[in-house]
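User: quick one, fold this
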Amino acid sequence: MKVLKETTSKLGQKIQLLGNSSYKPFLVIGVFHGDEPQGEFLINEYLKTHKNSQTLFIPCLNPDGKKLNTRQNANNVDLNRNFPTQNWVVAEDEHYFGGNEPASEIETKFVIEIINEYKPKFILTLHSPYCVVNYDGDAYEIAEKFSKIINYPVESDIGYPTPGSFGTYCGVERNIPTITLELDENTNIKNLIYPVHKIFDYINSMI
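Assistant:
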């Protein structure tokens, strides 16, 4: 896989978009939240044996949060509340603080640039811990397929307000089918390799 695009985080760590020259317009993102590191491991394990995958990957969007073991990035901003959506607000809850203004963060700007440049037609983000396949936009059929692979229920609503979320930005407001796969944080990560890699294979087979 080649580094197609990269930026540097506040703490000097690289954030990379990986892909091949003949890529399909499908994007997978890991580690939106630094305390949800499973996505990076699963993506990197997949790429060890699928170097010719035509899917685009950001293995770790929030390396600073991962280093600090926090949900937020180095500016204490929840990246999944920092997108310039119609419902963006300054959050009172520090845990879900989306910044003082939308798209204020390096990581958010990087993703927005990728969406504008590569124009993905489907996006998957890897989170934890809710064990659900959450979808935004016209992604129900794909969510059902993922549900059968990983045996998680399909949910259109995560159960609480998410102003400034990535799913709203892409799935609702830009009509890009977007799935948030909430992984089980209590299972051994190795037990997630097979179903998640099967999901990656399915994405790579999409037309």
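User: anything notable?
Assistant: Residues 190-205 form the longest helix (16 residues).
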